[in-house]
Structure formats: C-alpha cells, structure tokens
Design goal:
The chain has nine helices and 16 strands. By secondary structure, the protein is α/β, with parallel strands linked by helices. Strands 1, 2, 3, 4, 5, 14, 15 and 16 form an eight-stranded mixed beta sheet that branches. The chain starts with a helix and ends in a 10-residue tail after the last strand. Mean pLDDT is about 95; it is low at about 15-20. The structure holds zinc ion.
Length: about 400
C-alpha cells in the first residue's frame, strides 16, 4: 500500500512537472524547422522552445500562447550551435600568433557562420593562458575553449616555441586542472627536431590531465606512422586532407590511404579537417573521402590569413564536404555532437532539454557556387549552407535577414 501511494505521488509530480514544462514562459519559439540533433536522434520537422538561456523543449506543435517571440523556420534547418575545434583566437598586439596580430577575435567571424563554440588550438601555453583568458575568453560572446600548448608560451614562433626545456608536462597538466571548464585538451604543434621528447611530454600531460591530445602536425622529422602509433583513441589529428612539405601525406603517391592511417582510424583516432591557409587540397580530400576517411570535425584553423584565402569559415568548409558528396545530416552531426564528444564536452552540441540554448538556423541555398582549396583549385557546387540565425545562450547574436526582428509597421 505504501509503495502504491509512492507510485501515485510520483505520477502526480511527473504530470505537474509536465504541465509546468508546457505552461512556462517561452522566450523564443523556433517553429517548424528541420531539426538535426544527433545526440537525441532527431532528424525531423520540430519546434524548439527556449527559456532562460536553456532548451525548454523540442517537440512537434508546441503551442505559441506562452511564447514572447515566435520564429518561422519552416524553410530551414535547425541545429545545435556549431563547434570549431581548431582556431587561433589569442589576438593581441605582438607579431605572430600568441597574444598576436596573426590571431583573430572570435566574434568577428564565428557568429555569422553559426559557430557558438571555438577551441583555440594551442595559441597559448601554461605561461600565458591567464592573459588569453582575461583578454579574449572572458570578453567574447563566442564560447572559447582551449587546447593548451605543451610549449610554455604557446605559439611564439621559432626558436622559443621549440625550446624543449620549456615543455613541462607536470605544470601543463596542473594548469589544465585549474581550468576544467575551459581547457579541453593539449596540443603539440611546431617542432623541427627528430627526437620524440616534445611529443611524449604532450602525451604525458594529456595522460595526467585525462584530456585528448591535438596533433597539429608541423613535425617534419617525425614519421607519420610513429605519430599515429603513439596517439591514443580519442586523440585528434588535424590537417588531414593535404600534401604539405612539413609532414607525410595520409595518402600515398597512388592516392591510397596508408595502412597505418586506417589502423589509427580503427583504434579511434579522430581526424579533423584543419583547413587553414595552406592545408586543404581537393585532390587529397576527394580520394580520401571515397576511401572512407571522413572528418570527425571540420576545424577551420582560423587565423588572420586563412580566413581570407580558400578558407572562409567552418560553415563554408562544411559546404565543401556537402558538394564533395557527404550527407547533410552526417555533416551537421559531426560539426556538433561528434565534435562535442571529441573534446569531452557532452553538455554542448545537442538540443537536450536543459542544455544551453546555443542554436543555429541554417538555410541550404541552391545555385552555382565556387569553393576554393588552398592551392587555389576550384570546386563548383550546387548547394551552400548559410547561417540565417545564431543563438548563443538563448540570445540572438546573428540575424542575417531579420528573422527574429520586429516587423516594421
Ligand atoms: Zn592551427
């Protein structure tokens, strides 16, 4: 009898909470868009209700009565805010990248491309991370996360960036532990030597802090096979689709994927695009895709020079893959949920009830569009993704055509 009463009580509570969920004030109601949310296996026309910066509900036909603002998204796709896992946003007044002029302010480029989270790829190290945080991370509308460079001062260029004596696994792991909400991993990037000490120290820091390692492979004297062998499941290799002078290409001279690349893929190494200003080539990407080497994420390698070359932003990279034959749902899933999982941030990249309301409304334009790689080769395509509306923590931060604006009287 006691048990029965408890069940009835629980039932009444659940009804009460259900009612509350529907009757609560909705700040923003996005109606009728094609929702793609891989985390919740949604690929259908749905409404998305947002309240107090969080996802309140995703369902068919949510009533508009309690909504302060209703947006008609019936011609559009609706997805979690995109995550760009490879950027350089530690902008400052120095020459170079770290606290430097080669980096860019994230909000200048991300929001208009539907990107609500970026991960900075080791532009800072443990020494200058506090400056990065105060100067950029704390001031940006875009959520800025970080892969901390194993080099103590991050990307300061040669020779200081390559000083092995300033690659300290213990302190690096300690600083990662101090900022668990911001630092999601470790990075090894530029090193021209032939010993494995920097790589092994980066791995050691990753092991101690229990975070993935991002390998931005400007490591000309370290063989690719050894790099991939050392990488653990969940570690991320970026600059996947290129033939460059400072690394071995993932494809051999006959454009076949090298066997140890396939082995790495099977063991769970994640492959990121890392387009950049010189690191994405159609003549590598197309055969790689045909043989099943799909990107887990679409990192742009955003910096002052890449963004004005063949690389525009991460959304443009996603359009490239769409026109190379990848499926739209798959692309959006990888650019949101897969990327969130790879940086161990499963609170992001999804539209679960209660999740932060980072949302993008995308249009899929039809026409004739040119896409350029970093050798200035052009691919002509018929579809292009465009960010109509970007919402960050429930607030509209980009509205291309006034979708959420008030009608003029
Ligand atoms: Zn980079």
């Amino acid at each position: 009898m006691k048990n029965l009463s408890a069940i009835v009580l629980l039932f009444l509570i659940s009804i009460a909470f259900g009612q509350w969920g529907l009757s609560q004030e909705i700040d923003l109601l996005i109606k009728g868009g094609h929702v793609i949310d891989a985390r919740n296996k949604i690929d259908a026309k749905m409404d998305v209700a947002i309240a107090e910066g969080r996802i309140l509900k995703v369902a068919r036909n949510i009533p508009t009565d309690n909504a302060r603002k209703v947006i008609d998204a019936s011609s559009y796709y609706v997805a979690p805010g995109l995550i760009d896992p490879h950027t350089h946003v530690f902008v400052g007044s120095n020459s170079g990248f770290a606290d430097g002029f080669n980096s860019v302010s994230p909000d200048d480029i991300t929001l208009k491309a539907g990107i609500t989270t970026v991960v900075d790829a080791g532009t800072s190290g443990w020494r200058n991370f506090p400056v990065f945080k105060e100067q950029v991370i704390d001031r940006s509308t875009t959520r800025v996360l970080s892969f901390l460079n194993i080099a103590g001062s991050g990307m300061t260029g040669f020779p200081s960036e390559e000083n092995v004596n300033d690659m300290d696994a213990r302190i690096t792991a300690q600083v990662i532990g101090q900022y668990p909400d911001i630092i999601v991993g470790i990075k090894i990037g530029h090193y021209r030597g032939s010993d494995w000490i920097p790589f092994d120290r980066a791995l050691e820091a990753g092991r101690v802090a229990d975070v993935p390692l991002l390998v931005e492979c400007h490591l000309p004297l370290l063989p690719l096979e050894g790099i991939l062998e050392r990488m653990r499941p969940g570690d991320i290799y970026t600059h996947t689709y290129c033939r460059a002078s400072d690394r071995e290409c993932l494809l051999d001279d006959d454009l076949k994927i090298r066997p140890y690349v396939l082995e790495a893929q099977q063991k769970g190494v994640c492959f990121d695009v890392g387009h950049g200003g010189g690191m994405f080539h159609f003549d590598i990407a197309i055969p790689a895709l045909e043989q099943g080497l799909l990107p887990n994420s679409f990192g742009s390698d955003l910096h002052r020079y890449s963004m004005n070359s063949g690389m525009k932003n991460m959304l443009d990279i996603m359009s490239k893959f769409l026109n190379m034959g990848m499926d739209l749902k798959d692309i959006i899933s990888r650019a949101t949920w897969n990327t969130a999982v790879s940086i161990k941030r499963e609170d992001l990249g999804n539209l679960s009830e209660g999740a932060v309301a980072d949302v993008v409304v995308l249009s899929l334009r039809e026409g004739e569009f040119g896409f350029i790689d970093t050798k200035r080769n052009k691919l002509t395509g018929k579809q292009k993704l465009e960010a109509e509306l970007t919402i960050r923590e429930g607030k509209v931060v980009w509205d291309l055509n006034g979708m959420a604006a008030n009608e003029r009287l």
